[in-house]
Specification:
371 residues, Rossmann fold, 2 domains, 7-stranded parallel β-sheet, 13 helices, 40% helix
């Protein structure tokens, strides 16, 4: 069987990129032929090392060049690049003769079901049904967001399979045909289990609006007023780095809160921490939460869409606080900091997520979908 993945890029250390790496690697190790097409790699190396058996091709569309342009300039350029994208992708797929094309790039992929190359078309969404609304845009942008939600329903309905990550998200989409729930797998190297004794909280994700580390820093300021010797380390990169560092400096948190950049061994950092915290506005399914809990960290999280209720059993392996409740997030962190026995018990229970999100269980679902 030949499978082609379609994604915007592979140079970021993101969860979606790691998911593609894990699935593609598993498939080639089980006899599949796998290629990955990108649109915005721009000659940059992949952040994660891919097996040599996986063919990587960039179509050279570069949608990301349009960030920062005004609405009309952005729209004009997007339509032009989308036309080029369709031409190049169509040409490639007709030559490649894949059995399945699986796209993780929904906004620019609505034309894929119409490409007559003989392959079945799968779309997997790594964000929730209503993620457009998380920006709370007003005026023209708000209207566009609602139109995009309507267009999303029409788009996914055209694919042979439509895959979401959580039962919560499936319910939001309603009774759409050809929809399946397949979560991401937790692939955890052996030997990385936290003892939950280090006075360190860890957060991981891109430094941008979605991950909302500005809310976490506000909560951490409250934590520091109640607790004097724990630190918060945030791993990731992104356009909000300067903004977040300014917040840390202005709050005099420099010795207690650190932007750590990226690492090629996040497992080591999980094992060196005692609590995982997540402050996102929205997610599809938070892989970093699953990974951290697999390493024995209790999770403290806002009740965002989607994921926390699929992963966390509140008060057993973590704590869920109301979405946007910054004081509540701070209080939950302090509660676990003060109670080592409870922290360790929750951390031990957290490792059980591996059973639900094991690589073999998840890939069995994908094989069933593809076959």
């Amino acid at each position: 069987m030949k499978l082609i993945y379609h994604i915007n890029s592979l140079y970021n250390p993101g969860g979606m990129e790691r998911v593609v790496l894990n699935k593609a690697t598993w498939l080639v190790n089980h006899g599949w032929e796998v290629e990955i097409l990108t649109t915005d790699q721009c000659g940059r190396p992949t952040f994660y090392e891919f097996p040599k058996e996986i063919k990587l091709i960039d179509l050279g569309i570069n949608y990301t060049e349009d960030k920062g342009k005004n609405l009309f300039a952005h729209t004009f350029s997007f339509l032009k690049k989308r036309r080029l994208h369709k031409q190049r992708l169509t040409s490639y797929l007709k030559e490649a003769k894949a059995d399945i094309v699986d796209t993780l790039y929904p906004g620019e992929s609505s034309f894929i079901p119409g490409i007559k190359d003989g392959s079945k078309k799968v779309i997997e969404l790594h964000q929730g049904r209503y993620f457009h609304r998380q920006y709370a845009n007003k005026g023209i942008k708000g209207i566009i967001d609602r139109l995009r939600e309507w267009a999303d329903v029409r788009m996914v309905s055209k694919f042979d399979k439509f895959v979401v990550l959580t039962e919560e998200d499936k319910a939001d989409w309603g009774d759409l045909p050809k929809m399946e729930v397949i979560p991401n797998a937790a692939i955890v190297p052996e030997g990385f289990i936290s003892k939950c004794t280090a006075k360190r909280v860890i957060a991981v994700g891109r430094l941008d609006y979605q991950k909302s580390f500005d809310r976490l820093i506000k909560a951490w300021k409250i934590v520091c007023e109640k607790n004097s010797d724990w630190v918060l380390d945030i791993y990731g990169q992104g356009e909000w780095k300067g903004k977040l560092q300014t917040m840390i400096n202005d709050a005099n948190l420099g010795s207690r809160c650190h932007l750590m950049g990226t690492t090629d061994n996040i497992w080591k950092e999980y094992a060196s921490s005692s609590i995982f915290v997540m402050s996102s506005h929205y997610e599809g399914l938070p892989m970093v939460m699953i990974e951290a809990m697999s390493c024995g960290l209790p999770a403290v999280s806002f009740d965002f869409k989607c994921g926390p209720h699929d992963i966390i059993e509140s008060k057993k392996n973590g704590l869920i606080v109301p979405e946007g409740d910054i004081v509540g997030l701070a209080d939950a962190l302090v509660a676990l900091m003060k109670d080592e026995a409870r922290r360790k018990a929750m951390g031990s229970a957290a490792t059980e997520v591996v059973e639900k999100y094991s690589k073999d269980k998840v890939m069995d679902k994908w094989l069933s979908c593809y076959e």
